[in-house]
Design goal:
Elements lengths: L17 E6 L4 H11 L7 E7 L4 E7 L2 H4 L2 H6 L4 E7 L14 E5 L2 E11 L2 H10 L11 H9 L5 H9 L4 E8 L4 E5 L8 E5 L4 E4 L3 H6 L1 E6 L5 E5 L2 E5 L9 E2 L1 H6 L5 E2 L2 E2 H15 L6 E4 L5 H11 L7 E3 L17 H4 L2 E3 L1 H4 L3 E6 L6 H12 L4 E6 L27 H8 L3 E4 L2 H8 L11 E2 L1 H4 L8 H6 L11
Parallel strand pairs: 14-23, 17-20, 20-21, 21-22
Antiparallel strand pairs: 1-4, 1-10, 2-3, 2-4, 5-6, 6-7, 7-8, 8-12, 9-10, 9-11, 12-13, 15-16, 18-19
Length: 484
């Protein structure tokens, strides 16, 4: 990934995927379109919708953003009372049309559609095994392994086949299946990725990656799907199954740090409130005298507000973000220093000049963009620049459905805070501690210790174990040097 890529102009990990499903509503396609629109932050590479009208399935998918793919005439063609949809950010497989979801297959029990948020640890092993038995794969996604397992199953009912197939896979997943009978949702036993159930006014149910979608379509939040739970929604209502052995939950704490929309309620907590408390905890751990607190927009805003309110230091938006940058742009022939960052962010000299500035961001991954942002603020005349990160240092890649840089791109994996500070040229640098992060999550409860979350990116403690061969394949033994 080059520094000129606008999606990486802010130094953080990239999005994952978003899933959305509706059952029992005459405008299932329109509701799914709105749901995917609300989940656009979870993936901008591609999008797709599959509907069922009681007689036939209807399908539309393409590369691009939701609003660019689904016109009014397109949605009119997607008839039915049930639908599933997907926003894609590829973690396995490239950005090719054959990798766009929903996956739709015809097999012994009829037609099956599936969408997936997550990543399979043993996907390559299962793919090799299935190909040896004659399976022909149409994509390079690990997700396709699941539909092949379902097709190979001898069970009589779809739900039974889903349960049997999921019993063979390891990794993180939230899955939605659409069949002639209804809608099936599944969450992995560790509950790494979020999935929530809502009830639509006037009838029908919805399953979605985030609750912000419920507000848009005026659905009532019912509950989170539990780790290891499978729900089946059909004309009889909602049925629940918990067929897998219970394990300690390992929900992704980085959903709070960056991925989820601030207005979503996630794992029982409001995301915005948690992020704001992270800023307050950051102040407690790393206070510094300054004239102004500014966020790296947009993800650093809640923590910066929390830091400013707790410190009584004035808050201002002295970094302005261009919200209309696409996936590609034409760079001038004459080279402009730090062009990739400048096209996304710009500093306001009138606010910054002569000031001691605290810059708050949610995370620091490679360090290259943070370095450019610090230099931009310095060029705008800042007297001092103190960088504060509202999460712990990221030392490990994620293999559970996040597009993470490799270990040799994670600056904190082999460099201490002082070395990173010198590299990004800040006057000081401080991260939120793991304990402070969980105090924010649990709102200073006496039970703030990590009991329910995956912290692998901060700790190298992977809750879903790897075999030795998988560790080698996934690059868990890489070294790193500071980027130039």
């Amino acid at each position: 990934m080059t520094d000129n890529d606008p999606l990486h102009a802010i130094d953080t990990m990239s999005e994952e995927c978003g899933v959305f499903g509706v059952y029992g509503h005459p405008e299932a396609a329109n509701l799914t379109y709105l749901g995917l629109y609300a989940l656009q932050h979870r993936g901008q590479e591609a999008s797709g919708i599959l509907t069922y009208d009681g007689k036939a399935f209807h399908h539309e998918r393409n590369r691009g953003r939701v609003a660019d793919i689904f016109s009014e005439s397109c949605l009119n063609r997607l008839k039915g009372h049930a639908a599933i949809g997907h926003n894609r950010y590829s973690t396995t497989g490239g950005n090719k049309l054959e990798n766009v979801q929903p996956i739709v297959v015809n097999y012994a029990l009829g037609t099956l559609g599936m969408v997936h948020n997550g990543n399979l640890i043993n996907g390559n092993f299962l793919r090799d095994e299935l190909e040896a038995y004659g399976a022909i794969f149409q994509s390079s996604m690990d997700s396709e392994v699941i539909v092949h397992l379902i097709a190979h199953s001898k069970r009589r009912h779809v739900a039974e086949r889903v349960i049997e197939s999921l019993g063979r896979i390891r990794g993180a997943y939230c899955l939605l299946f659409l069949t002639e009978e209804g809608l099936i949702g599944a969450r992995d036993p560790y509950g790494v990725r979020p999935l929530s159930l809502g009830k639509i006014k006037g009838g029908g149910y919805v399953l979605a990656s985030e609750t912000c979608t419920f507000d848009l379509i005026e659905a009532e939040f019912v509950r989170d799907i539990e780790p290891g739970e499978i729900v089946q929604i059909d004309e009889k209502g909602v049925s629940s199954f918990k067929p897998f052995p219970k394990v300690a939950p390992a929900q992704c704490v980085f959903e709070y740090v960056y991925f989820s929309r601030p207005d979503s309620n996630l794992f029982g907590k409001n995301v915005y409130a948690v992020r704001k408390r992270m800023g307050r905890e950051l102040l407690k751990e790393s206070q510094v005298e300054a004239d102004m607190v500014i966020p790296v927009p947009d993800s650093g805003v809640p923590a910066a507000l929390g830091y400013a309110e707790a410190s009584l230091i004035p808050y201002d938006t002295a970094l302005i973000r261009n919200h209309y940058v696409g996936r590609t742009f034409i760079e001038p022939q004459q080279s402009i220093r730090h062009f990739g960052v400048k096209i996304k962010l710009n500093a306001i000299r009138e606010l910054i000049e002569g000031k001691r500035v605290i810059v708050v961001d949610d995370s620091l991954v490679r360090g290259t963009t943070a370095r450019k942002i610090v230099k931009m603020i310095r060029t705008a005349g800042a007297k001092e620049i103190h960088v504060r990160i509202s999460s712990p240092p990221i030392v490990s890649p994620c293999f559970y459905g996040i597009d993470t840089p490799t270990r040799n791109e994670l600056v904190a994996s082999t460099h201490n805070v002082e070395e990173i500070r010198k590299y990004i040229t800040a006057d000081s640098l401080a991260y939120l501690s793991t304990e402070g992060m969980f105090r924010a999550v649990y709102n200073n409860s006496s039970e703030y210790e990590n009991k329910h979350f995956c912290t692998a990116c901060f700790s190298e403690d992977y809750p879903i174990p790897f075999t030795g061969e998988e560790r080698v394949q996934l690059g868990l033994f890489e070294d790193q040097a500071l980027p130039n």
